[in-house]
Write a structure and sequence with these properties.
- This protein has 177 residues and is an alpha+beta fold.
- It has a single domain, classed as Beta Polymerase, domain 2 (2-Layer Sandwich).
- Helix content is 50%, strand content 17%.
- It has nine helices and four strands.
- The longest helix has 17 residues.
Length: 177
């Protein structure tokens, strides 16, 4: 499979949940170190978010990385350097985003990492950390979320956007608490 075929397979990859893998935090740590070495002045902090950051949580086996920058102007200035660092993205998709920039790494036709560049200490930064931390702290909430994810992954296997949107109400309810 060539690079173009690998990318297309990663883009079209169905929603598939894997059981929690204790190697996910180490994979995040490796990526965090590489990002901070490459962008030491630009990135104010790098955090592990998403389901792979919650022990015991089933997840799409994609490490979600949130990198904090001083402003969206800085996120835009990093756009090409991040692409040069081995990430890919959709310019059209990013044009629709006002509060972040999104990038992906892939290998062998599968997504491996999502990078969300957001304003450090901004609203989205706090929301993503609040959700992660709430589920880490509350096993009952985490169990409810795991069940919801399994049901939605089954229902929306061929539609990543629908899967993500369908989790929104639960995510917002946890953040609101």
């Amino acid at each position: 499979m060539n690079e173009a075929q690998s990318l297309q397979r990663a883009i079209d990859e169905p929603v598939h949940l894997a059981e929690y893998d204790p190697a996910w935090p180490a994979r995040f740590d490796t990526k965090r170190t590489r990002l901070l070495e490459r962008f030491p002045a630009e990135l104010l902090d790098v955090q592990h978010i998403g389901s792979t950051a919650i022990p015991g949580m089933p997840a799409k086996p994609i490490i979600d990385v949130m990198a904090g920058v001083a402003s969206m102007a800085m996120a835009d200035a990093l756009f090409k350097p991040i692409l040069d660092h081995g990430y890919v993205t959709s310019v059209e998709f990013n044009a629709s985003l006002t509060d972040r920039r999104w990038f992906m790494r892939h290998a062998h036709g599968r997504r491996t990492h999502h990078l969300h560049v957001v304003v450090y200490d901004g609203e989205l930064w706090h929301q993503r950390l609040a959700f992660r931390d709430a589920l880490r702290a509350d096993p009952t909430q985490a169990t409810r979320y795991a069940a919801l994810k399994r049901e939605l992954a089954s229902r929306h296997q061929a539609d990543r956007e629908a899967y993500t949107l369908a989790k929104g109400e639960f995510v917002n309810s946890v953040i609101a608490q």
